[in-house]
Structure formats: structure tokens, C-alpha cells
Write a structure and sequence with these properties.
By secondary structure, the chain is of the alpha/beta class. Helices cover 32% and strands 25% of the residues.
Length: 305
């Protein structure tokens, strides 16, 4: 028996794919297909999509494979059958769908949801609400706020591949609210020195394949974005944050205190601050004591316009 999963990638799909490969390094899988903004994989064992999504920074949605049909089959009928079978009985159904790729011309994408809704009522006596969008795909916000992740809801992801359509059900979406809060809600930011997005910091840490119990250093820590994401990923890791600017070190500590007040698993005892220029940093660190360097160094003057 095998299982297949879909990963809907972010704005930099090459980075997202590399991050997934790093995170799944201990999970045997084969790639079914890699599209412009999605990745389908097959595994021998089930994977915990929620746990994986909690780690990733560059993936928007993860879906669990439900069914594979021919593009000549009645897609609306298969929709109604899947929804009736898998969703909680005696409850109103909430459903929507997203298309990733080009679908056969004989399928009316706009009328697909209306036809499925009609079949649900006529064949299974199930009332339903169709969640739709002007775009071909539903955003993670729409999915999360319209009951599509509940036991009586589903977003169906459609992947036309060769002569088949792979149908996956979205099981986890990126925690957009938490990422946004750490990006814009933290007390200390410095637009002059740069504002590394938390999602990118998360991707960088995953690409470094940082493991539990290791020691990490960010020698240009700024206001502490990488440090915050590192402590969320692995609270027991030791992380050294260094910067030539003492104000940056203070900003990092205030941001970490703010983070700890919102996330009780985040421990500040494993953070070591250093006010030190990069040229003399080695004097403050024991040889062979660092497992990974994850940083955004000085990239030159900010671009304008």
C-alpha cells in the first residue's frame, strides 16, 4: 500500500522544493510530478501533514491524496461521491476546489461546483455550501476561514497529469497569522538594516538541516528573526546571536521576550548574545563548537523604488 501527498509551493518554488527535500530527508518518497508551483510525492508510509507544515516556511498547503480518475470520467459525480463518503454524515457540507494545471476542454470548471452541489442533494440528500474564488485556486486564508479544514469540509486540489486527474484533499495550511504576527507585530524592527521575513528565515534553517541539540550561530543577527525561528523549531538548541551593533542585540532580546510571552515552549536560556564584529568573532567562540551558521549578512545599500 502506498500514499501520495501534494505540496502547494510559495512564491519561490525552487527554495520550497529544496526545503521539503531537507525536511523529508529521513522519509523515503518518490516524486510523482513537480509542477511550477506544486509537488506530488508518493510514500510507503503515512506522514503527519500537520507536523510537517509546522516546520516548513515555503509551503502554502499540503494535501492528502484521495483519488485518481481519468479526465474522461464525470468529475462532478466523483466530487459528490468523495464528499459524501469522507465527510461527517448528517451535517451540511462545505467544499471548494483549486486547479493546478490545465484541465481538459470537455470539463466546465466554472459549472463543476454547481453540478457537484446538485448531485449531493439529489443522490445523497446532503445540503452543501460551495466556497469559490475569482481565481482558479483558493488561498490558504479562504480555506482556513470557511470550514474547509473541518470534518464536514474539504478543499479538493485538482492536478491534471497526462490523461488523469489527481484529486487531493487539503489537510494543512500554513499558519499565515502566526508568521504575519512575527513579521509585523514584534516590538522591534529595523527597516534600515533590513527585515528578513520569518518564512525565509525558516527556510534557511531547514536548508541547513539543523538538528535537535545542535549549536547555531547568526553572526549578523540584527533584530533576531533567524534566532526567533530557530528557537521555535528547536527550543533546546543553543543559538548564538552576534552583531557589531549593541542596539541590535537589545532589539533581539526584546523580540525574544515578546516571543516567549506568546509561545510558552520558547526558552530564552539557550540564547547567547554577543556584541562582536565578525572580524574578531572567533576569539569569543570555542573551536569546533558550532554546528551550523545561518545568517543574512550585509547585502549592500537598500534598493529604492
Amino acid at each position: 500500500m502506498s500514499f501520495w501527498y501534494s505540496f502547494i509551493l510559495g512564491r519561490t518554488p525552487e527554495l520550497s522544493r529544496a526545503e521539503i527535500e531537507s525536511v523529508l530527508r529521513n522519509t523515503p518518497y518518490v516524486v510523482i510530478v513537480s509542477g511550477d508551483f506544486f509537488l506530488l510525492i508518493e510514500t510507503k508510509k503515512e506522514i503527519n501533514t500537520h507536523a510537517i507544515m509546522d516546520v516548513l516556511g515555503g509551503t502554502i498547503k499540503i494535501g492528502e491524496g484521495w483519488y485518481i480518475i481519468s479526465n474522461k470520467d464525470n468529475l462532478a459525480q466523483k466530487f459528490s461521491e468523495l464528499l459524501n463518503t469522507h465527510l461527517k454524515q448528517n451535517q451540511k457540507i462545505f467544499f471548494g476546489y483549486s486547479l493546478y494545471g490545465k484541465i481538459s476542454k470537455n470539463i466546465n470548471l466554472r459549472g463543476l461546483g454547481i453540478e457537484a452541489k446538485k448531485l449531493l442533494k439529489e443522490k445523497f440528500n446532503r445540503s452543501s455550501r460551495l466556497v469559490s474564488s475569482r481565481e482558479a485556486t483558493l488561498s490558504s486564508v479562504v480555506v482556513a476561514t470557511n470550514n474547509l479544514l473541518s470534518e464536514r469540509g474539504a478543499e479538493l486540489q485538482l492536478f491534471p497529469i497526462d490523461n488523469n486527474i489527481y484529486i487531493a484533499r487539503t489537510s494543512a495550511v500554513q499558519d499565515f497569522a502566526s508568521f504575519s504576527e512575527r513579521d509585523y507585530g514584534r516590538p522591534k524592527v529595523d527597516p534600515q538594516s533590513g527585515m528578513l521575513p520569518p518564512k525565509i528565515a525558516r527556510i534557511m534553517l531547514n536548508l541547513a538541516e539543523v538538528r535537535e541539540g545542535e549549536t547555531i550561530i547568526d553572526p549578523f543577527c540584527g533584530s533576531g528573526t533567524i534566532i526567533m525561528e530557530s528557537l521555535l523549531l528547536n527550543p533546546n538548541n543553543k543559538i548564538i546571536g552576534s552583531d557589531i551593533n549593541y542596539g541590535a542585540i537589545q532589539d533581539t532580546q526584546k523580540n525574544l521576550e515578546w516571543l516567549a510571552s506568546r509561545n510558552h515552549t520558547t526558552s530564552l536560556r539557550n540564547f547567547i548574545p554577543l556584541e562582536q564584529p565578525i572580524e574578531t568573532l572567533e576569539k569569543k567562540i570555542q573551536p569546533h563548537s558550532i554546528d551550523a551558521i545561518v545568517t543574512e549578512p550585509f547585502l549592500g545599500p537598500a534598493l529604492r523604488g
